[in-house]
Each structure stands twice: as C-alpha cells, then as structure tokens.
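Marked as duplicate of an earlier ticket. Keeping the data here for the record.
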Amino acid sequence: MTLDPRLLRPFVVLAEELHFGRAARRLHITQPALSQQVKRLEAQLGVELFARTRASVELTEAAEAILDPARAAVSAAAEAESVAAELAGGERGRLRIGISPGTHELAQRVLAELRKRRPRLTLEAKQDNSGVLCADVAAGRLDLAIAFEPEEVTDTVCEEIAREPAVVAVAAGHPLARRQRVALAELAGNRFALVDLAGGRGYNRAVVDHCRAAGFEPTLDDDPHGPMTWETAVRARGAVGLTTRASAVSTAREIALVDLDPALEFAIELVTPTAAPRPPAVLLTREIARGFAQCAQRNTNSHIGVASLSA
C-alpha cells in the first residue's frame, strides 16, 4: 500500500506529545480522528508505532526508527507549502520587467519600492525601446513593461499609468533655444525628429497626433532608423523633437529644452500579456506605479494652484 504523506504529521505530533488529547488539540481534530489516522499509517507501514495503555502512550522501536525521517518529511512539506504560498502571493519568485526610455524616473522608483515590499522577489530588468519591449511581453520573454507611448501589439494589453508633460528639444544654436516656452503650432514650419521605426512607432504616432491636434501636418524626419536617429536629427540636422524632461536626461548635452504652452503630455503605460491572468507581482507593480504617478500629479496640480494664486 502506498504511504500517504499526510499521515506523517499526526504521527510526529503524537510522538512529541505522547498524549492523544494534547496531540489532537495541536492538530485541531478530535481524538477518534487522530486514532484513525495513526491506525491507517500503521497499516500502510506494516508496523505498530505506539504502545497504548490506559495510563500512557509510548513509542515502539519502529516508531523511534522512523521519527527523524518523518520529522524531515513534515518539515519539507511545510517548507513547500510556504514557498508555494509566497509564489502565489507574489512574495517571491521572478519578475521580468522591461523599461523604455522616458520611463526611467518612474521605473526606478517602482523597482526600489518593489525591492522594499518584496525582498525575496527576484527582479530582472531589461532596457530597450517600447516596440522591442512590447514584442518581448507578447512572446513571454517579459512579464510586463513600463513603456513610453507603446504601440499596439497583438497579445498584449496596454494600460495608462502616468502622463508626463512634453517639452520641445532643440539644438543649443537653434533660434528657439533661448525661448522659455513655445506653442506647438509655432513649430509648423520645422522638421520633427522621430525615433527608429522598428521600435518607436507608438512615439512617432503620438508626435503626429499632437501636431494634427494643434492644426498642422508635421514635416517628418526622413526614414528614421538606428539607435541615435532622434538625437542626431535634433543636434545635427536642426530638427525639433518632442520629449519629456525625464527622457532628455541622457541626451541633454548640446540640447535645449523649451516648455510647451499650452501643455501637452505623453503617456506611460503598463504592458502585460493578454493570455494569462495577471500574477500578484504584476498587480503589485501596477499598484505601486499608479500610486507614484498619482502622487506626482497631485504635486503638479498643487504647484499650478500656487502659481495661479501668485499671479
């Protein structure tokens, strides 16, 4: 007969207590139920485990021989249950997360908070453009991505979690470089920088949409390709680029940033697979990211309110 490992814990507890009443209370079962479980284990093992009298319960030689292995088995089962519960609850395991340019400030805060709340969760971060990261999420190579204006990719779901104010980036010698603010409509005669088509279609689409909303069809940089195409167009070819201050940190050399008035915003979105329900670690990431974004928005609104009162 195959051994039922669930019967080992009642055996271990009774061996420690040597009293059916105390052992039953520890196990939260009745004494008759405990007695039946012990008899089943004895039948499966083919040996007697306890010498019972009206006054006492004693371990047999067979029970003493198997007690240590039984304790080890019970401990291993408890550890397995604990690990499974932590995995199911997002307490531990692995979270593969993609981070695109333009989301670093938010992403770094999210990762720091995740490490604080889930110290046993292994975080694996990949940095790339939004298009590549969305493809990785769809293919199962990433669990989620925090993406800047991501494109629509089959088998993924995009959920907006934050919005970042847009600014205009121009070369240091550009006529607009000394302006503090500019309306997007004023840029109608300029050429607009785009990012590589292979991974930045979402950003490129957003640029065109903003321009059309401002009342003009933008002149676009020809055939953008390569990792530095946007920066090269702005620095060397006199193009204007729409970006955010957080995005422009790595490209700030010889580039001036001009605020837009009226203001425009770019979306930061959480990208997850459509196939499976979101695991707890992904839901926690979403909660943390939205919390930081909402806090930042409240601070922005507060500054705007103070500025209005001052005016």
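See parent ticket for discussion. The domain at 92-163+269-310 is CATH 3.40.190.10 (D-Maltodextrin-Binding Protein; domain 2).
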